[in-house]
Amino acid sequence: MELIHIVGLSCVVALLVLVLREHHPTIAFLVVLFAAVIVLLLIFHHVRDAFVLVRALAAQAGVDEIFFTTMIKMIGIAYVAEIGAHIMRDAQLASMAAHIELAGKVLLLVMAMPILTTVIQTIAHILPFGAT
């Protein structure tokens, strides 16, 4: 049911933006920004429930909490960067969108380093030539 609300809100916002963009581009941008916040608030509890479930499954599987926390942070960075870049594109700021995307990719790479290091070390210990 929430998806219907989100689609309905998006359609109304699209119509408003089409009307406002020509004469009041700042207001049109604010309408889009406000709608994005509302959509995020509408889905927040679903995201939270999914993270709680995945955390419980990770604990049952014996996955170290640091890996789980890092992965959740990486997912958050990816979504924030994507949403931020889309907002910048809506504001006709493509270069800022590219900067946000680059910053997100760099932060993801930095956060992935401990996990990649652990994976490489594990593979090195498993393979016969990795013990040297």
- Gross geometry: elongated
Uncertain regions: pLDDT < 50 for 5+ in a row? none
Helical element count?
Answer: 4
Overall average pLDDT = 90
Structural classification: mainly alpha
Spatial gap, N to C terminus: 58 Å
Number of distinct beta strands: 0
Largest sheet: none
Radius of gyration: 21 Å
Give the amount of beta strand, in percent. under 5%
**SSE series:** HHHH
The percent range for helix content is over 70%
Which keywords apply here?
about 85% helix; about 130 residues; mainly alpha
3D structure, described in words:
The protein is mainly α and 132 residues long. It has a domain at 64-132. 87% of the residues lie in helices and 0% in strands. The protein contains four helices and no strands. Helix 1 (2-20) runs antiparallel to helix 2 (25-61) and helix 3 (65-90) packs antiparallel against helix 4 (94-126). The N and C termini lie far apart (58 Å). The model has no long low-confidence stretch (mean pLDDT 90).
What's the SSE blueprint?
Layout: H1 2-20, H2 25-61, H3 65-90, H4 94-126
Helix pairs in contact: 1-2, 2-3, 3-4
